[in-house]
Every structure is written in structure tokens, then in C-alpha cells.
Predict the 3D structure of the following.
Amino acid sequence: MSTVEFPTVVDAPQAWMRVDVEAVTTWRRDLTTDQVAEIEAAAGPIVEGMQDIGCMEKTDFPLTTLAEEIPLWVDSLLNDFGFLHICGLKTGPENIRRAAAIFYGLGLHLGRPRSQNAKGHVLGHVCDLGFSSNDPNVRIYQTRERQNYHTDSCDVAGLMCLKPAKRGGESGIVSSMAIYNEMRTECPDLLAELLKPMHVDRRGEVTADGLPYYQQPVFSWHKGYLSALYAPHYIRSAPRLGGVPALTEIQIAALDTFDALADDPRFNITFKLEAGDILFVHNHTVMHDRLAYEDWGAREGRRYLLRLWLAVPGARCLPDHYKHRFGSVTVGDRGGIRVPGNALNAPLVPI
């Protein structure tokens, strides 16, 4: 057994099990008719004008009653279950600018958008581009493959569904904190490996340090908080890179156990996002998944979501080694993928 001194058991709402979230509906928010009207009114000038979505500021998207409620959303994300399912909007792929204005505008009331790739995109398009993860420079959201439980490189990630898949594509949520507690009790020798740095493949998005990988533990304890940062496919693909050793047997066993617990229905919850639904997740305490899916066939009929990565004021402190992935650990100004020369922009088509 390991002699590592582990962080304390996480005894907080963030360490939830499936039975806990199924017993309540606080993680689901149904917008009222008045709230939807308020959002659509705020988006109107953006839709009708020529303003670049990526140049929007919070003041460009004025809200009244929702401006009082959104801080409650943020508190729930940071301190409760760590995810919110927002329902009631009517958006679709036929008017991307309108959907983008609504989604980006709401996001500005939660935090500051961050770059999601080497192109500097602060508005992401999640759909099948006909790629395969076998290509070392492809990110899995560009395929229709299952993503597996993972975190994104930001405080809070948001997804707005414009069109669901014909079959599959459900979203999964699991508490990384609950998995930590389980491994701390049942297999501390394997958990010890997840508290040590592992190499993670950057998938071609090389940052200013010039390295095609970074090193990061899955679990980090800092100033009273346990946080998780996990990209399973990219940890497992990192040994393809020069200078990265093969994973050891105990590292593989630790990753396999972690993934198996995430897939255990005692721990996770799954649901389907319908057109207009928004999902926000707090990456430091929960992981999300997207199941493999089948599209309707035509390009216009593909499963289509918009994505935001947000740096959130008031979020927890993170240890310095998060700089390898987040670029900074300054609260409210961290996260995203920062490569030299990537000017921030918000494309309205998948590129």
C-alpha cells in the first residue's frame, strides 16, 4: 500500500453520487417566458448589427432580472454539484449569429471567454468534421467518437445545443471528487499515481514553451481545495512524443480504475441536450462526457453545439503547475489554449 499522505476526504456537495443528483432538481433551471424574452431582447442589437461576437462586452448584453439570478448560477457551479442544465431557449443552426449572440452574451455574465484552440477561437463549434482521433493533431470534439470523461482547460465550460444527434450523443456528468474519495478508500496505491505529474499530449497546439506536451497530476491539493484536470486520451497518447516515457503498469492501472469508476452508473448521470439547452460545468470538480453518435446524414442535419470556456471571478485558487495548461493561475484571467500569435476571434462557422 502507498505511504503517500493524501488530501482529506472531500466532504462537500461537490462529491456527489448519482443518487444524490437524482433526488433533487437544483441542477436544472427552466427559464421563464419573461427571462427568455429578456435574453432575446439583449441579443437583438447584436444580431441586427455588424459587431463581431468576439468583441462583445458584458455591457453589450444588458440583463435585469437574470443579472440578479446568474450569480446564483455561479455559486451553484463553484460550490454545489458543479453543473447546471439551462432549459427554455429556442435556438437552432439556421441562425448561428442569433444563437452565438445569446450564448456568448450569457457567458459574459458568468465569466471571461478564453481561447479554445491554437486559432484563438473564443466561440467553439462542436460537430463532426469528418476527422478521426487517430490523427495526432485532431481533438476529439471534431469527431463523432465518444469523448470519455474529461475536463476542459478552464474554470467553467459551457455547451449550447443547436441540434441533437439522430442517435446517441448524450452528455454525461460525473464528480471527480467522488471518484477521489472512492479511490482513497479502496485503492490508495493507485490514487497515489494520480497525485504525481503525468505527461499530457498537446495534440499539436504548442505553447510558448515550445514543448508538444505538458506535465500535470490528475488531482492537485491547494489552499484547502482538491481540483482535477484530466484528459484521458491525451495522457495515453503522450508517449508517441519524443522525450515522453511509456506509461508504467501502475500508471495504466490507475488510469483504468479512474475511468472505470467514471463509467460506473453509481457515480455518473447522463441526459440528452435538446435544441436550445445549455450545459455549464465546473471543470475543477466534475468531468463531462459525450457519447458516440450518429448524425442525420446531410451536413445540415449534423449534431451541432456551440462551446464556451470561461475564467470565472471568485473561482478557487489553483497551484502554480496549472500554468502549464492554463497559461496563468490568476483568478478571472486564466485558462484556455495560448499559443504565440493566436489573436482572439469568434468564428460563426466551424473552421
Remarks:
- The CA atoms of residues 193 and 251 lie 6 Å apart.
- The mean pLDDT is 92.
- DSSP finds nine helices and 16 strands in the chain.
